[in-house]
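Dear support,

Our group has been running a series of protein-ligand predictions, and this particular one with zinc ion is the one our PI (initials K.S.) wants archived with full inputs and outputs. We had some confusion internally about which version of the output was final, so please treat the block below as the authoritative record. The input we submitted was:
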Amino acid sequence: MLTIMPEQRRFSDSELTNMIHSAGLRPSIQRIAVFSLVANSRKHPSADEIFSELTKTYPSLSRTTVYNSLHALVDAGLVRGLEIECGNRHYDLAPQPPHSHFICRKCGKIFDMTIPSGISAAASPGFCVDSVDVYFKGVCPVCSKEV
Ligand SMILES: [Zn+2]
Ligand SMILES: [Zn+2]
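Confirmed final output from the archive:
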């Protein structure tokens, strides 16, 4: 039985600023805004979703600025891309405990799930594992009720 991970705490702007600074990046307002959305929304947004969400607060923000900020955060190891579907990358906070993802094929939401510890031991001997990505696909509890 899969269990949904508990909602994680919110990161304050000063915590996010410190994390960006420690990663060797200049903590610009745009980078903090993009990082905050990825770290605190718990929704694994796509780049387009990040852009449309941020323009509500910062109407003058350009798509290029958002994409550049996102790529800088990925390069710094603060945000990671999830290859869930071809051509539509979603983003997640990188420094967090290993977890897997469940993608609902009806509503398209991405949920955090647990991952069995020691899963990388499943790799054949002689292979060095850099990272493990586990994706479940199916129907979430809300969509299961709407038959
Ligand atoms: Zn659903
Ligand atoms: Zn996640």
